[in-house]
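Q: Can someone sanity-check these two? First one:
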Amino acid sequence: MRATDNLAGGRLTIDRDAIAANWSLLKGLLKPGTTCAATIKADAYGTGATSTAQRLWEAGCTTFFVALPEEGALVRSALPDATVYVLGGLFPGTASDLAGANLIPVLNSVAEVREWAGFCKAESRAFPAALQLNTGMNRLGMDPEEFADVMAQKELTGSFDIALLMTHLACGSDPEHPLNRQQLNTFVAATQPFSTLPRSMANSAGVFLGPDYHFDLARPGISLYGGKALDTAPNIMSPVAMVEARVMQIRNVPKGQTIGYGGAETVTRDSKIALVAAGYADGLHRRAGSSDDRPGGFGVIDGHKVPLIGRVSMDMIALDVTDVPGEAVTRGSFVEMLGPNVAASDLAAYAETIDYEYLTGLGRRYHRRYAALPAPQER
């Protein structure tokens, strides 16, 4: 049974309208004729796959990408008429399951192509599939030579419907990285003979790289959820999630004493410390803690930025609220740990990770609710 707002240590507010607005903004950045899909893998980056998919459908999005067949089946149950691609490909022996759920596998190897073709022949039906090329990321996908060989074998490709040709950018977050143009050139060269088939290259970063990368379909992910797609430009996307954690206790710590496990940080003044009911079990990364050698993350309470002090524990963190007026923070107060005033990319920088990991790692102990997020507070 999910804890109620009163019993949970924190609450997670998700703004579905903000997700839809981000999708509309991205759609507007694409060249005319390019379809804007949505990547909703990992439970829609922690926001709830079915709820997010339904809101995006209402906004006009009809094509979705997930990582795993199980995720696809969940989306299919919510949206019977949507187009759903499975990025993880075809697990051995699962062709009938994907076809039965009307899911489209992204075939990433010659073995997967052969298995899907064999299934379609046995069923005497050309089920759709996408083909992915490895253009330099060296993750999933067929090398250009393998792709050309597959496309030359009509007994394979003629047995199913090729719905999409696609690849994935390795360094799109850095617009100046030479691998972007190399991948683009490789993709164009490999797919040009089949340019009548729909093609896709742009993830969130690819949308911002410009029309050369847009092709027929873009499939943004992190930008939908307010994340930063480019390392070198301001983030223009709206935040879509807010985490607030409850203050459990306020204590006075004299100058010279340490706080938390390992005595990692020593207070340099008489300090007022708030112990807050959220930790790494709730998605607040341990690496974002602070020590005498390095600063850590922060929260915001009543417009005041309050630094994390000491290590992040499993179930709690300590925040230095010495400079916050006494009436603004009391036992039971909520502190914003992620949201309009605390960008996931900022927290990720302290934790030496990326905002993707923060969003997808949000814990299940929060009381989850769907509502509009408040405007950022002036500090």
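And here is the second, same format, sequence then tokens:
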Amino acid sequence: MLTKQFFLNKTGQLLLHITFWCGVLLFYTYFFGFDSTDFSYVLSFSLFLMPITIATTYVFIYKLIPDYLITKKYFQFGMYSVYTIIISSYLIVISVFYGLIYLSHFQYADMAPISRNLLFVAIAVYLVVILVSGFKLLKLNLKHITQTNKLENKILETQLKLKEQQLNYLKMQIHPHFLFNTLNTMYGFALKKADEAPEMILKLSNLLDYLLYKVDKPFVLLTDDIDHIKDYIELEKMRFNETLDITFLTAHIPEDIKVAPMLLLPFIENSFKHGAIKNGLLSIKINLTCKDKIINFSIENTNKQSEPHKNGIGLENIRKRLDLLYKDNYTLNLINKSTFFKVNLTLNTGE
């Protein structure tokens, strides 16, 4: 099958070349036949010029341009081009003598008018060479552009796959962290045989549904993310009981704005995990607002004076995820003081 296709391609190219050179021959007979009635002379003279034109053209398009000009070997290209022009010019001179000696038998007046002028003969030959060489350059440039585009697409494809793998790796780290904290809370309630256990299981079920089925999506509605954050906070309220003082304020949240899943929850997890109980309370303040597709999120929790807040796996991963998903469209500031730890995140989802 491949051999047949190769044969058809070569045959098509051969027919195309033959058709083109037949067209050049017609051009020569028309050009040199101007103001001449001796068709036999004009045709013979044109046929004599054809091998010179063909050889010069093919030297340029199959050797000089691909091997030297395209590869930026300009010195060699210039040098060999001069050699080619000198040789072809010599052959053009011979063609004029051919017309004078063999076709008109030394009768200068019997020569076709244009064929007497060496400059016009050279212009006719080199015009064809220049046109074909220009077409060859255009074809090579288009081929180069196509190859470059294919290479760029492959690079982009590889980068996207790499980013996807990195994101999956980061999510694999976040999920166990989240589950570990939540299951620890459930374990404590199970030991106490608390009445709140069924409600806790229901909220955990909602969180697991989110974790297993929605977190693999590239983006989720911010409103859905907020609902699951509220479920998580309710679970933690059950665990901390009277020792938790938490506020979660949201304002101006559009129904259509989307974010990457599990983007904000790790901040809240870390506040519970690394936050310190002071004066009998773990104090956490969360604010989430939106304006013109820009999300402003802040969370602050109490911190021990002797043990400054540790970033942990969640914050490190969330910064990497932000770099991969939002790149230059976010700002993340961490304020780590002896008495409190605060996160300020501004996220532009409209870019």
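A (reply): Looked at the second one. The chain has two domains: 11-153, 240-348. The CA atoms of residues 244 and 337 lie 20 Å apart.
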